[in-house]
Amino acid sequence: MTISRTILICSGKGGVGKTTLTANLGIALARQGARTVVLDADFGLRNLDLLLGLENRIVYTAQEVLAETCRLDQALVKHKQESNLALLPAGNPRMLEWLKPEDMQAIVSMLSERFDYVLIDCPAGIEDGFKNAAAAAKEAIVITTPEVSAVRDADRVIGLLNTRGVAPVQLVLNRVRPRMMANQEMLAVDDVTDILALPLLGLVLEDEQVIVSTNRGEPLTLNGSASPAAKAYTHIARRLQGEDVPLMDPAREGRTGLRAKVRRLMQTKIF
Amino acid sequence: MNAASRARARRVLILPPQRSCDWRQWLPDQREFLAAGSVDLHLGDWSMGCRELTELMDALAREGYTVQQVITHCATTQIGAAALGFPSSHRPIQESGKDNGDTDSTDRRGDLRIHRGTLRAGDQFNSEGHALIIGDVNPGASVTAKGDVYVWGRLRGRAHAGAAGSPSARIIALQLRPLQLRIADLVARGPEEPPWPGQAEQACIRDGDIAIEPAQPPFLDDQTNQRKSFSAG
Questions:
Q1: Domain limits at A183?
Q2: Could you report the predicted ipTM of this complex, rounded to two decimals?
Q3: CB contacts, 8 Å: B80 with chain A
């Protein structure tokens, strides 16, 4: 690693899996040996610490670091099992107004001296929270689900990232249900990439294990789980590091018989 | 001192276009033109994954070049360069700048205002004359022109032609699947059925309503029999 990479993880719409991706990608990168820090820029409604199981270890935030009431290494929360991963909450939920884009840049430049990857968990929306988070990012991963509303919001966010000169921007498609895609009840992968016109970094299947792991505070990638989502997150991390990992084909993942395939060929797309 | 170091950083090694040759044959001759040392690498339209980039970087290192920065028109290459840890900048051939007036992606030719690149959700593009979009108009984006709207791509957002009230204005797109169309003061929802592939279409006012039909080049006279011969074929 010659330079540190600062990657914004954003979506526009809420609830599509930004925080889950950040946590799992952070763990996966750390397990692959990269020194990684996850920065929770969504500190008004922060829950990256919950997903990582680090809620009770947070003492300081980036706010105290910038005010010089504590040192950076005091504020960084090291993950209990994965020592390559650290968490830094950007601020205190009770003081939302303090953060400016310059503050974010200052925090990130401090972090990039020590880490190979700085992953920024962006708040939903395109208001100040997004602008602050985007100000410090060089690259971005836009995550969306195969739903019209999520794709629309992602499209808007990509436009904003382009005007800010954030590049490359890559796409992760989350909560893919192969069966529904095969039956044309859900936007197909092509429909989404057609509109967003971004290189696809990964596909994550809908997976109940994600809910279990979220509630437990142990990201799926932590224990080498064999669940489909865990595999997808690990693959995303490997692709991010420059490895050639082929994309999953949702048509093969779902138990689709010949009939569904023929039907798929015959029908036109729903979108 | 400062100026000298900047001059050194500006040395750029430019790969010839991807179609013209193989860089493996091209590279060994380059030392005659550019001395070894640190260079910026301009990859032009080359699309390279990590593996090929690594190979190229190794070859460059053997020739004595140290790459400071990678410049590319290709998104794949930029992702690869980022993964290998090179500072990189992406310069799309078709700029994807945005709405607010005079960004570098728009230019004017007479009463025609041109936008290069995709118009994404939330973007708005206005023209006092005709509007030409070279790229897609995504759902949620809108184009407004006092004259005609031309989209060299897919029109899936909103378009308003003849915004100042001209009923002869047209909306033409390679693929016409808008959410909503407006011509002068008429409004129509987009068609439900998918468009014919490979057939550019236009929307214009026929008998007081907005109708969609196969597109005619602007230089053809707008004759009805001309249109019929199109739709018959």
A1: 5-266
A2: 0.77
A3: 242
| Residues composing chain B | 233
Radius of gyration for the alpha carbons in chain A, expressed in angstroms and rounded:
19
For A268, the closest of B80, B87, B194 (CB atoms) is B194
Dihedral of the alpha carbons of B166, B167, B172, B178, in degrees to the nearest 10: 100
Total tally of structural domains belonging to chain A: 1
Angle formed by the axes of helices A101-112 and A128-135, nearest 10°: 40
In this structure, what CATH number is given to the domain that contains residue A128? 3.40.50.300
pLDDT digits (tens, 9 = 90+) for B41-64: 998 888 888 888 999 999 999 988
**Residue A118 is which amino acid?**
V
| pLDDT tens, position by position, B77-91 | 888 888 888 887 777
Instruction: Copy the structure tokens of residue A60.
Output: 């300081």
Report chain B residues touching chain A, CB-CB < 8 A: 49-51, 75-76, 78-80, 82-90, 96-98, 118, 120-123, 136, 138-140, 156, 194
Q: What is the band of A257 on the pLDDT scale with cuts at 50, 70, 90?
A: low
Q: Are strands B106-109 and B112-116 parallel, antiparallel or unpaired?
A: antiparallel
Q: What are the chain B neighbours of A155 within 8 Å (beta carbons)?
A: 120-122, 138-140
Nearest to B92 by CA among A74, A3, A198, A132: A198
| CB–CB contact B121 A153 (8 Å) | yes
Q: How far apart are CA A218 and CA A204, in angstroms?
A: 18
Per-state percent for chain A, helix, strand, coil, to nearest 5: 45, 15, 40
Evaluate whether residue A271 is within a structural domain.
no
CA dihedral (B4, B6, B9, B12) positive or negative: negative
Whether residue A75 is contained in a domain is answered as yes
Q: Which one-letter amino acid corresponds to residue A229? A: A
Are A226 and A205 in contact by the 8 Å Cβ rule? The answer is no
Q: Residue B223: its pLDDT value, please?
A: 47
Q: What is the pTM of this model?
A: 0.79
